Amino acid sequence: MSADVVLASEGGGCHLFSGCGFPAPGAEIFIFDPMFHIGPFEVTKPALVAAATAAIVIAFFWAAFSNAKLVPSRIQGLGEMGYLFVRDQIARPMIGKEGDRFVPYFMTLFFFIWMLNFMAFIPLIQLPVTSRVAFPALFAIVSWAIYMTLTFKRNGLVGGFRNLAVPSGLPGWVYILLTPIELLSNVIIRPFTLTIRLFANMFAGHMLIAVFSIGAWYLVSPSIIGMASATASFTMAIVMSAFELIIQFLQAYIFTMLVASYIGQALEEAH
Amino acid sequence: MSAILAATDSVSGSLGAVGYGLAAIGPGIGVGLIFGNGVQAMARQPEMTNVIRTNMFIGFALTEALALLGFVVPFVFP
């Protein structure tokens, strides 16, 4: 039984034929009361889970690489698989020869985001932390800052703006239209869509699982149709969980890959 | 436009859900095109699979963002 089912049961034990409507979950399932205070800061469940996730990721890579040997131990082999994936699938194809320099950042992004997403499946936690918009927003802002810094550092002020707003090789009159759009897209819309993509995917996925779990609990009732529907709904919740497992990985991969492609674009020499 | 305004008076229930249905049409077609053509490209040139897959996911991510914007908007503007 997931936490959502427990949540639904706490909400009055609503069932089919017991005279109450379907208690559809809303955005309130992502809102938590502060658990305790540290100074002026209220610590809520997502913050606590994020800190724990960071500790887990750090501990894993510490165990894998603090005492690296030529013949890798089992955990080091696992860590190296992760490293090779990020380097060969993300950094090198997107950035090229210079990509290796940024692999540490991509490793951090990829594994931290993936584990934050994965927290949706840890019993008793069951919350994808990235479904709180602040977390993806922070990743996007940091990545955006790196992207902008590299653009202007590599190309200079004028060249930087040219890199951002003037794609080469087009007939002259197109630039009147294209330059403002490109500038807006690269500087403002990119960090925004990075945030929304990750946030909304996790939000929607968690909501979907919650709807089917609560639906299963709601449909439990003394009737054949009700029980059959409850079974179908619960099966659907499990199928959706499996689907989410893929989405969680994919979103971490896409986020990292897009950041890599932006950085690759920033480092591109002007033609 | 006046037809739409008239419809908002007579339609009951969640307009947000209807709006999201409409918003998902375009990205749905887009994602279908991307994966369809991606798979076709991989079938034609299997040795380029890695490159195609990477670019396919970038295109997918860019298109999907539109559908997700449609999903988030009803929560932002209730």
UniProtKB/TrEMBL annotation, chain B:
Tell me how this protein sits in the membrane: Multi-pass membrane protein
Subcellular localization, as worded in the UniProt entry: Cell membrane; Membrane
Q: Where is this site: Reversibly protonated during proton transport?
A: 64
| Name under which the protein is recorded | ATP synthase subunit c
Record's family? Belongs to the ATPase C chain family.
Q: What does this protein do?
A: F(1)F(0) ATP synthase produces ATP from ADP in the presence of a proton or sodium gradient. F-type ATPases consist of two structural domains, F(1) containing the extramembraneous catalytic core and F(0) containing the membrane proton channel, linked together by a central stalk and a peripheral stalk. During catalysis, ATP synthesis in the catalytic domain of F(1) is coupled via a rotary mechanism of the central stalk subunits to proton translocation.
Where do transmembrane segments lie in this chain? 17-36, 57-77
GN (gene name)? atpE
Record's NCBIfam families?
Answer: ATP_synt_c
Q: What is its main location?
A: membrane
Query: PANTHER family attached here?
Result: ATP SYNTHASE LIPID-BINDING PROTEIN, MITOCHONDRIAL, ATPASE PROTEIN 9
Q: Which domain of life is it from?
A: Bacteria
Task: For this UniProt record, give its keywords in alphabetical order, as a comma-separated list.
Answer: ATP synthesis, Cell membrane, CF(0), Hydrogen ion transport, Ion transport, Lipid-binding, Membrane, Transmembrane, Transmembrane helix, Transport
Q: Which organism is it from?
A: Actinocorallia aurantiaca
Q: Which residues form the V-ATPase proteolipid subunit C-like domain?
A: 17-75
